[in-house]
Each structure stands twice: as C-alpha cells, then as structure tokens.
Amino acid sequence: MSVKEFFLSKNDIPKQWYNLAADLPNPPKPPLGPDGKPISPDMLAAVFPMNLIEQEVSSQRWVDIPKEVIEILYRWRPAPLKRAVFLEEYLKTPARIYYKDESLSPPGSHKPNTAVVQAWYNKQFGIKRLTTETGAGQWGSALAFACNIVGLECKIYMVRISFDQKPLRKTMMRIWGGECVASPSNRTEFGQKILKEMPDTPGSLGIAISEAIEEAVGDKSGKTRYALGSVLNHVMLHQTIIGLEAKKQLFLAGEKKADVIIGCAGGGSNFAGLSFPFVCDKINGEDIAVIAAEPTACPTLTRGPFQYDFGDTAQMTPLLAMFTLGHGFVPPPIHAGGLRYHGMSPLVSQAVKEGLVTPKAYHQIKCYESALLWARTEGTICAPETSHAIACVIDEAKKAKEEGKEKVILFGYSGHGLMDLLGYEKFLEGKLSEYSLPQEELQKSLESIKHLPRAD
Amino acid sequence: MSVKEFFLSKNDIPKQWYNLAADLPNPPKPPLGPDGKPISPDMLAAVFPMNLIEQEVSSQRWVDIPKEVIEILYRWRPAPLKRAVFLEEYLKTPARIYYKDESLSPPGSHKPNTAVVQAWYNKQFGIKRLTTETGAGQWGSALAFACNIVGLECKIYMVRISFDQKPLRKTMMRIWGGECVASPSNRTEFGQKILKEMPDTPGSLGIAISEAIEEAVGDKSGKTRYALGSVLNHVMLHQTIIGLEAKKQLFLAGEKKADVIIGCAGGGSNFAGLSFPFVCDKINGEDIAVIAAEPTACPTLTRGPFQYDFGDTAQMTPLLAMFTLGHGFVPPPIHAGGLRYHGMSPLVSQAVKEGLVTPKAYHQIKCYESALLWARTEGTICAPETSHAIACVIDEAKKAKEEGKEKVILFGYSGHGLMDLLGYEKFLEGKLSEYSLPQEELQKSLESIKHLPRAD
Fold first, then answer.
1. Which of residues 107-136 of A touch B (CB under 8 A)?
2. What average pLDDT does range A95-107 have in this prediction?
C-alpha cells in the first residue's frame, strides 16, 4: 500500500467561516435569561467582547476571517488530509477512509482553531486578559498557546483532580506563559465557598467555569473577559475551517463526494468543525450520512432530551436549547475527558433534532481496541476522544464491506494521545474499567431539569 | 511576520543515502577486536545481519535506498523545512534561521529514519526478532514502531531508572507491540549477575546493551539480531536523508548556500544525519561552519581524547576510534537523556578531528532558557536534546547581528518534548539543577582507558 496525503497550499486556506445557522431548516432557538425571555447581546458583554458576541448571534452564512487571523492560522494550517490505506487494507474494506489530521497543531488538537481567533478578537477589543476553565487540559493549553501569540495574559482554572493527575498539561500551559490554578481555588468567592463546604472536593467543570467567569466579570478595569472552548455558536463557526479545508482536499484526492462524515462529540466543536460544511450539502439534497460519536458513559445526544438547560453546573450561564443529561449530571471518569460534558452545542443539537446528524454511542473499551488497531496499522497514537470516531469508522468500513459498496468515509482526527498514555497503559494491562451509565443518577439529573422549557 | 515552510513532494524524497566515509580526507579507522587487530565483517554476524554489516564497512559514496524502504519512509517523510521567522524577529537578527522538523514522525524524533531501515534489512535477511536497549526511550519506541510496520518481534531493555521514571515511553513501545523490560532483568545471565551483585542498581545503558546483545546472540535458532540506534556507520548513513532533503528545501527557499549547520550530538546520529551532506560540500571547498552542540555535563567532543574505546560499559563491543570520556564514565542525570553517552560516532569523531566540525558545549539551564524562548516565539515544545542545538542557534544568530551579516543558519529540530515535560516543569519552578562535570570521576574514567590505543 502506498501512503496518500493531500496538502493545500497556504493560499488555499479558506478565507471565510461557514455558519450553519443560516441554513438550518428551522432557525436555532435563542438562549434564555433567568426570566425565561431571550437574552439580548448586551447581557453577555461583561463575559465576552462585543465582536465575538456579534458572531455568536449572527445568521450570516459566510463570515470573513480577518487576514491577521489567517496569518496566525498559517502556523499550523492548512492541516493535511490523509487516507488511512493501512487500516483499509487490514479491514479489507472497499471503503476509502480519509481523515483530517488536527493533531499537528502545537497543543496537539483542533482547539487552537478557535483559541487563536478568540484571543485575537479580544485583543482587538482592547482586552488584556482572558480567563477560562479546563478539564483534561486540551482547551487550557490551546488558549495559553493562543494568548502567548496574540499578547494576552491567560488564567486557567483547571479541575483539581485533573490538575493533580495530569500535571504535565499544566506544564504545557506554563511553557506558553499561562497561569494555571487548581479549581476550586481560594482566588474567587465561589471557589472559597466551595472549599469551605467541601475541602476535599475533586472539583468539576461547572465549578471551574464559575470561577473563571467570576474573575472575568469581577475585573473592575473591564480589561478581562472569559473564553469558552466549545458549545457556543462562534466556537462552532471558527472550527468550520476544518471541514472547509477537507472539502477542497477530498476534491484533490479525486473524490466527487463523501458518503459518511464522522466526528467525536463532547461539547460539539470538533464535530461541528468537520461536519457543518457537509451538513450544508445534505440540506441542499446530497446523500450523506453524518455521524456524531459519543461515549455510552455520557450519551448526551443518544439519551438526553432536547430542552433548555444551563451550560454549567452552577447555573450561571443563560439557558441553552440543546440535548442535555442535566447540568447536575456527573459522567463516569472515562479517559476521554473532552467528551464528559452534560450538554451539547445548540447548533449540533438542532442538526440532530432535524435529522441531519445521527448520533451513536460507543463503549470505552471498544474505543481503546480501535485506537490500538489504528496505532498498529496507521502508526499514530490518537487521543481517547478521537478513538470514539475511529470505533465508528471501523463499524462503517465493515458495513461497506458487507454491502460491497465503495463508500468514501471522512473522519476528524481531532488530536494525538501523547498526553493521555495512561489510559492506553491501563487498557494494555487489562485494567481499564468499562463504565455503564449510572441510571439512577441520570434519572435524578433529568428529573431536576424537567421544569425547564422543552426546546422541541 | 509570515510563516514560511518548505515541503518536498513524495517524488522528491532522496533515492540514495550519502556515506561520508567516501569523502573524509583520511579514511576512518577500523574497529579493533580484543586482540587489537581490525575485526572482519564475519565477527559481527552474530549481532547484525550481513546486509547491514555491508553498509557498516562500505566506502561507497552513495548507497541506494530500496524502494520498499522509501514506501515506509513516506509514512512521515519528506519532513518539512521551516523558517524560524518569529525567533528571528525576537532576536532582531539579520540571520535567516531554518530548521528541519524531525518531530513529526509518530515516535516524535529522527530515530525512526534508521529504525525502519534496520528492521526492513533484518526482515529481508530472514530475521524474526530484534533486541535493543533504550535509555530515555526515544530509540526504543522508534524501533517498536518500525518492527510493527515491518512485522518483527521487538524486545527492548530499558534502563531501570528510566523505566520507573518515564513509564509512558514504555506504554508507547507496548502500543506498537514491543516488549519492554527493565534492565538489569532476570531474563539474561548478565542481568542476573548484576542483580545479584547490586539488587538496587538503577541500571545503565551499558548493562542494557549487554543484555540485549546476550539475548540476540544466545538465540540458537539464529533468528534474532540486535539493533543500535546511533554511533555506528550504517546508522549515520540512514540518517543522511535528513540533510539531503534539507539541501533541496533550502534551494526551494531561495538560498544558494547555508553558512552555519547546527545539530545536537549524543551518539551522533541526529547530528550526522543533518550535517554530513554539508560536510561533503565543506570538503569540496565551500565555506560552511558545522557545529555539534553537546552538554557540558557530558562533553565528549570538547573534553575527551580521540582514541579507541568500547561502545558499552561492559566492554562487549569492538573497540571504536572515537572521542570518548571512557566507557566507565557515568554522566550526571541531565534531562537530555539522549546526549548522555560517553562516546561518539567514529565518523563524527573523525570529522571533528579533521577540523570539518566544531564542537561546542552548553549548560542545561541555558538550554532550557533557549527552549522556553523557542516555545514562546515559534510555538512548539522541543525535546531537551534539541534545546542544545537551539542554544547554539541563538548564539550564532546574535553573532550574525553583531557582525551585521545575513547568514543562513540551518539546524536539526530532532524531536518534540511532549514526553519530557518534567524537565520544563522543574525549570519553570526554578528547581532545575545545573550539573558541573564531575572532574574526579572523569579523570578516573580517562585514566582507565589510557592503555587503549590512541586513534590520532
């Protein structure tokens, strides 16, 4: 088998992002404030800069990428499209499997695609400092990387258990000049309150978000804002550069169309980035299957209702119309930390609701088996999040074999797994736990949000 | 500043390796056996396959790369040449700084350039199984990766202290199907002997080599051989693909010639790979400075004599003509594990002896300062070994500024530092030790090899 890679020249990088909101059959539902009424853009101004809020509420189909942003993206983009010829050969499938390799950015994932954009827009708006939260650390390291390039200070609240268990992600953030503190911390009132009530808490994404927002909003100088790495519309928008590049590269590869698009989905940014430009084609009548792969341990799209819910545990955010397991749901500690989120991007959620996207859930051990097969055929070590997409790809490639169909499968290789080798070690030792969904907790969590408005 | 990268197409990958032995003003000195006489190729046949031994003793200038090997190299080659425009800007230097990025291979360093070749030739020779040693784990993971591609079993003896301190490198080897054991082990007679004498020893590269060779030689079926990741002539040969590609890419970048070539040097393979094709130009009269950057804690080229010495601590290898600190020398525990070797490739050694290459030694803390500046300008996190080259690059770029000269500097970005973040963390915490050379131990070590033949 011969290696097949498809590169774009710097000149071929997309000059605009694609906004799915412009093409969804039904317009996305607006976020609601505490009073149950749609919030106005102004109500977000203390948290985000107005130029990003404009993108958040935009219904414009194409949004220009500033040329200064393109210059920054050039540091690692365009990302290559590769064909997984060795996996194809192993599976003896007639399917042609392509993947968009987002693991080559310095922080090792797709996250910088929006991190550098958010940092740049904040800088333009006169902001000096960004705060954010991070779980496993992919987003935190991407934002530290971005702030270093653009010239902003960066403060990251990292969930305490990850801070302690993954100390080297913290080191990455520090290398790029980011300040990383364990959350809950004594730097914020909310953190102090939690520490007083539960001094031994491992922390949670919800608490970390609350601390990061409190610090941003509390800066009296008005020079600090908060940045989020997924879920929101402007984040999905920035990530569409992935799918837009991939479309050009599939053409270079001689493919007239893709038949199956696959991405893993946690908050939705990696999935949306690859798939939205293809979902657009689907809306326009093309026959494409678009699959969001999620963990069975946190099955937001496959098991959650489509309704309004808070984006964070502490109920500080507006209510978002999305699939959700309830803001109080704590997913089991699977290694794919980036997929342990109770909710889902409202745009991705609506695309699922409208039948444009099909969700599928995968067990952790099947994902690691797939990742190992990938490493032993294609040669690279993928992130635990990415392994969910690969598990789905293998299923689809086997299906194509059974059907005897020459399908074109495209998936998002969202990140490398070099910072997450511990999960592989446990898997190889036969010590990896399979987590079933904690049914009782899920029921309790869903019960607690029943009073919130349905979104369908 | 605009990002500048130079890619070769797959077709432009070199089809031959370059052998410096053909062009050195004085022919390299042969290895000697225990009797002090040059060894014959046959004497290596129990350790290496004959096709690689032929390369080891070859004086042919150009050696064809088998097309099957090129197909394997395509998995991550050609490697990009990049210009460090952000570092240039920071230093306000008139120098143009280029680097050959070898960090993009799946194991993350230049090591697979020879690992896949050695695995392939062994496979051709009917070998089923390779043994090797590894210190920090870069070589061990590269050989596991290579054996998985080619279809060989792989057994890696990893120095115990690294095995315990860097468990995730072991995980990488296991992901690719390699068996990694801590050395000294109870799998070999030599290992058992050492464990009996010193049950708590942290192990050493010398002990690990001895165990790996014992296992290879002891396989009565004749289907096991040993593989070495540096030092030997055939390893240098395989790595010249780095410099040969870089030459073509400098031309693409519009440069007529390079003025300064810089690589870090431990056993010599990274340094030789980049520099030998340029050393050839120097022999032919071009004005090029070629600099080997080594640690002050293990200053083989800057402080060692040029004489015959053993390649391993246990004195199992033939005597090699090289710069050496003595096979008994134990370098201080700097983080650049790949540079902690008492000897140096005989070909690199002779190039230094003949004045074609200038060695320079760098302190660990200056190297980390340079690595941090690199991460905050160019954006990527380099291996501790690579940081030695970067420290040297910064010196040379500053010199160019003082001299007001538009020099072209090319260096080898030999690997990423994602598996070595602990050293960065210590540096950022101000807890990194500076190691001075243990003078007394060095004297003792040099004294102990005084009876061995001088090489000059």
1. 108
2. 98
